[in-house]
Amino acid sequence: MAGERCVRRMIIDGLDHMDRRQEGIQHNKSVAMNHIHDYYKKALDRLPPELIPSLLEAGFCFGFLDPVSNIISNTVIHELGKGKKRKRPRRATGSTKKSTSEAENRRARCKTISQIIESSKDFPMKPNRSGSEGAGIAVWSIRGLATFLTSYFRYLTIQDALRYLRLSKADLLVAVHLIQEDYCSTYTFTMHDMTAKISLGCAAISSAMHPGVVPAFVSRSILLASHVDEVSSLLLPTNSCCCISRSTINRLSELFTLTNDMIDDDPRRPMQHAISRMQQCRGRRKTAVVPAVGLDYSLKLLLLDKIHVLYLKAISRIPRHELCSRHHRGLLKAGHCYGPFDPVTNIILNSIWYDTVFPAEREFEIEMISTKKLARIECLSLEGLVAYVCALFPAFSAYQATRYLLISNAQLDRAIMGAKEDGHDQAFPFSHSEAYDAASLAACHPSPTAFVEFATGVVPTMGETLRLTLKVNRMLSSSDVCTISETLSQKFPPSKSPKLVPDLNMHASNIIAGKRMKFKAFQSAIVKRVKAALLRYAQQVGQEYELHVICDVNAEIPEHGICYIPGDYKYPFSHMNILAKRKGSQIADADAVPTLFFIECSNIDEDVASLCCPILEPSKDAGRCFHCECEGIKIIHPPSETYHGRCTEFEDMASGKNPVSNEELISQGKYGTLFIDTMEDDCVYFDSSWDGDFAVSINEMEQDRDEEDDFSCLMFS
Prior knowledge:
The protein has 717 residues and is mainly alpha-helical. Helix content is 55%, strand content 5%.
């Protein structure tokens, strides 16, 4: 019954990682650096000796070509940019002079590679702010490679980046592909993606490149990669001449100066070349699944991202009136995504079931879903999914269960099928009741016993009826929701309050009343800003939208690194996701699903222009935001727009200006994402008929506070 006390725990598991040891990190760094040294040896064999100074100054091995081609092209770019004539090599006369010239060139190359290797010893991965530690080109290159990966992939630590650089032989796009494989990403990397451009800029900044030339470096790298087939052919060594010719340098120079309208490219080609290199190096060997440094955390956070998108889909399919007046409660209290159907259907069905069987003492209307409570039900759903899979496969670790769930997009039947196909043994005999019991306990379900009865009994008796009604490719109608509720109530009639909920003391009652008033005031302010942003968007596109519901809000977005407005102690901007539906839809479009929008607006002046844009494919990798990630808020940002927190903050991290490291950013965000304990927003949804645990905890909290106050009075009286 509701009100049963559950054991609460953090999602984070305490796992031991070999690569977290210093020797493991040093091994990954050392192996990756050895590959980088080898690339410089090959590049030196292909470059004329007079270009060696440019190689040492700017011949980075990162970019969107293969590492050797990156070194050569970056060296040539730098040489051409010096604005001076390159000294032509002296023409040798006679076999003796020719032999002497070749010997001198060999000595110069050997001296250079020795210099590169010597300057690579005992270096830190993070540069100091002065940039005066005497690092060489190989150190700058490995820093740039690692910075690109940590800037491009959220949740990736420097330690993990080094591991992938070892596995990829310090080949940037191969490393990207390996990470996408581990992350079970369906997104195809393209160099024109804004996050890729920002990440390459961060790589250049971390490598001591002057910020003024970074945009040109990024632009030229993309221009070259746009002609990856031609460039690869140009830089391919031949038996007749190992050193690149003057005509090759001239052609590279021409490619650098092409304009965008002259580019004839397939943005997928650089990654296709990288996959080919990877296959040539390792064949198609299949290795055992072993979690990397922090990869178990990364997969949990990535799975939560996918689960969040599923919740947005479910919310978009519940009619506005039914969602905002009643079922927002069931969604946030018991709308878990595990159950006998697909995740979106489970969320909708579990929400309606809970509100039907455990009716609210009082119903209230909302226009904004609590960001923290939505994040919590998503975290609890993840716990339930993992517990279900582990109950079915007792030998599984949480990491293995998470990986199969990530591959299957949190769909239990597909995760189970995938595990079976890989030869994992299922528990025998197996009981669905036991698995749902494990899931509901792990997810701190408010009524685990009732849920197990519901989950195991709903399919045999009314599964087909509900499946036909719950078509998740459209919005449900009000009559659909009513039909579902009535169908469920026939099998699972409304329960009576257990009468175990204690009365609240005066202080606890005042706290709850105050939190509810605070929520209403905050909601009112946010709704006002949203409607103003939608009005401006309608004026731009000629189409009006009406608000369905506000999904996520981060009202603490600073500007230019300044967190507060002087004198007001307020943040100047907000980021949010909303669902909105076109006004004036025809009857045939009445079941059309609302569109997800991203909004950046001013917290101070509604007349300030805001960014309001639709998110057409929320399941794809979205743009990153330093501020939202730092708070652990899963707002989906647009992939191709500019907003506060998108670029400058990551560039400052790359240069060392921002004291927050990537590990600290992940850690800070984790506390805002992976949490289960009671929050102040629970006060808004407190129900004296069912929430016994919360009543006990808030009464005890206030009692402890009173005792502390009494003690303080005695001490100072």
